[in-house]
Structures are given as C-alpha cells and as structure tokens.
Amino acid sequence: MLHRISYFLGIPKSKPGQQHLFRVTSVPPRTGAVLPPPVCLTCVPEPLPTEPPYFMDDLYLTKIKQLDDDDDSATITTPMPRRRKPKKQKVFQSETPCLFHNVIFSPHSTYFVLDCLGPSVPTSDLYKTKMPNPLHLMCLQNNTQLRDKISKMAMPQIKTFPVIISGGYQAHVRLHLPPGLREDEITRYPLVVQVYGGPGSQLVTERWRIDWNTYLTGNKDFIIAQIDGRGSGGQGQQLLHKVYYKLGSIEVADQIEVTEYLRDTLHFIDKRRVAVWGWSYGGFVAALALASSKAVFHCAVAVAPVINWKLYDSAYTERYMGLPNVTENYKGYDEADVSKKAHLFKDKMFYIVHGTADDNVHLQQSMAMVRALSDAGVLFRQQIYTDENHGLGGVKRHLYRSMAHFLDDCFQKQVPPEFKAGLRNDAE
C-alpha cells in the first residue's frame, strides 16, 4: 500500500488465463459515493483477437457470445504503465503483449519489479511507484540469449479457445500442436490429454513454459490438450463450487466431454490413439477418465494418484468433501474411490507410478489400487521409485522416458498391423 493505494495481482474480465497488476484506492468513499473500480496497470489497451479457431461451429459461437454478455465479473479499466527511455540503455520490448505477470515490491513500496512471465520468453523490469501510472526505470533481465536459442527451434503451435460444456459453462482448452502439423493436410496425430482438475487449479494460462508437453509435440508428434472445466479457477465462484462434495465426478466428466468434442471435430486427431495422464490430483482424474464407460481414452498414466480420499490429508479433503460419515458425505467418498472401479480397467492399458517416500499422497494410495486391480484380474503396468517423494525429483528423466515408452506401446497396439508402417495415416 502506498499513499492509500493498494496493488494486487488479479484476473481481467473473461480472460481466466491472464494475470495482471491492478491498483485500487483504499480510501472509503463518501456517503452515497460510488467506490471506484480497480484499475489494471498492465492490461493490453487494444482488444486482443478473440475469434476461435476455424473448427468451432456457429452454435458454439452463439453460446459463447451469450456467456460473455452475461458475465458477472467486475469492470476493469486498462491504462498501461508509462515508460521512460534510458539515455544509454535500450529497453527490450517484446512484440508479443505480456499477458501474465508477477510483481515484487520494495519494503516501502517505492519500487517494484514487474516480471512478465508469458506468453513469450519471460522478462523483468524495474518500476517506480508513482501516480497516475508507474514509471519505468530499467530492464533488469530480457533473456536475449534464451530468446535467440528458442527462435532457432521448432516450437509447438499453441491454440487456446473455449468450448461449451454441460450446464452452459465454458471449458478453456489449450492445444499444443506438432510444429509440422498443417490443418489442411490429411495427416492424423495421436492425442494426449494432460489433466489436473483440482479445485481452483488452472492448466490453461498465458504463462510461458517448456516442459514434457514441448518434448512430446516436437519429438513424438503428439497433440497435447489441456482442459480447465468446472471446478477450475479464474472463472468465478459458481463454476469453482460445482465440485463441492463431488470430487471425481463433474471435473472428470468435463475432461471426457471436451476430449470427445476435440476427437470428433478436429480431423487431424487420430480417434484410435487417445491417451490421458496426470500427476497427484491429475492422476486421480486420469484413472477415473480411463475407467469411464464412454471409452474415450485407450490408456492412462497416473503418477502419485489419490485413490481413496479417506486416506488423504484431512484438512484438504474435508474442505471440499466434508466428513465421510453417513450423516454428511459418505456417498461422495464412496463414489470417488477409484479402487472400487478396478473391474472397469479390464482390456485397457493403465500405468501407475509412485515414490515410496511420498509424504503428500502416501504410497498406501497406489498400493490400494494395485491390490484392487490384482483381485479383479486386471493386467497393468506399475513403477515404484525407492526413496522418492511426491515430486520424484531424483528420477524425472527415467520417469518421463518410461511414460513416453508406455504411450508408444499404447498407440502401437491401437493400430492394425497393416497400418503400422505409416502411423500418421488414417485407416479409412
């Protein structure tokens, strides 16, 4: 706070993937006066293109417009911080607008460091806190070397768009497409859905990153999809609270529904090769998605998954599920128990991974699932990492290699032998 002005990081209206710096007065208004709305200091003044990809039909566009018109988010104004050009130093300015920020203020809030974290390579700038707008002093880090290196690499094509789901809500979807994919060609690619789905979480943001998704799209020619449906953050309290007392139901259904839409709408997705993977809560969602009777996914990887919420951290679990007794939410706990669905994994490829020193999701979770699968006569793949905690930091390379090998095996088995010589070609 500075001179009765408060600063905070927030999400602009109808842009859940963005994060910007806002300013608001902390002086109470006079009686009868209207409280001034927050001012966004880093929002892009010109509206960014909002047209969805060509593959979205008119019905979806109409519903999206209706949702935008009914949006109950706060109105935001968007002046940009003014910049002062240094005499001897050229300040780097990206051609791509910065859409995801973090900020660190000095002890007395006289200065702050503004980190631009995406969608392009991150940069850091120093500002002086002044009115009416902060004053740019200097660029602290522009990551020129990293930017030059990235410019010489074939990076994934990124497409972000909304899809209407059950209840009239929007799921925000991001596709990581192989660098060589051409939408006008007949080549078809495998689809891998990365899930998390925990309450208030977001996978689809404008934050820049290079991770395993980058490797799979560039090295394996896989399409990666990330889906934020009901229960995710950044889209208001109503959508967030849809999963209350019902973990493992609505968020899983949204992943399946959107994946079906992508599979049936995008001609460059191979319907025979669709997989899902997740870590922690994402492993829980991935396992339930594979067990679904809709058979959208052919295989799944669950890393350190929650299997039974009775065995997880009570502070977290009871916040969203209440108590597991008959007078409160016994049914919710029972229906979310993945081990009771072990028989639904028959004739499906399932890979479960866990570390023995996991102090977040205890190894007992995976062991309960392993026993249930064995009792049900289900064949599956299992990987246990000795003395590794929840992050599996000491075996990341081995973990990702083993998961990639599992996905290769899965996709090979989904294609008839006569077509394996040209996996990208459609069987029709």
TrEMBL record:
Superkingdom, natural source: Eukaryota
Keywords of this entry: Aminopeptidase, Glycoprotein, Hydrolase, Protease, Serine protease
Annotated signal sequence range: none
Domain Peptidase S9 prolyl oligopeptidase catalytic stretches: 208-413
GO molecular function: aminopeptidase activity; serine-type peptidase activity
InterPro entries tied to this protein: AB_hydrolase_fold, Peptidase_S9_cat, Serine_Prot_S9B/DPPIV
PANTHER family in UniProt: DIPEPTIDYL PEPTIDASE 10, ISOFORM B, PROTEASE FAMILY S9B,C DIPEPTIDYL-PEPTIDASE IV-RELATED
Record-stated family: Belongs to the peptidase S9B family. DPPIV subfamily.
Listed name of the protein: Venom dipeptidyl peptidase 4
Source organism of the structure: Cryptolaemus montrouzieri
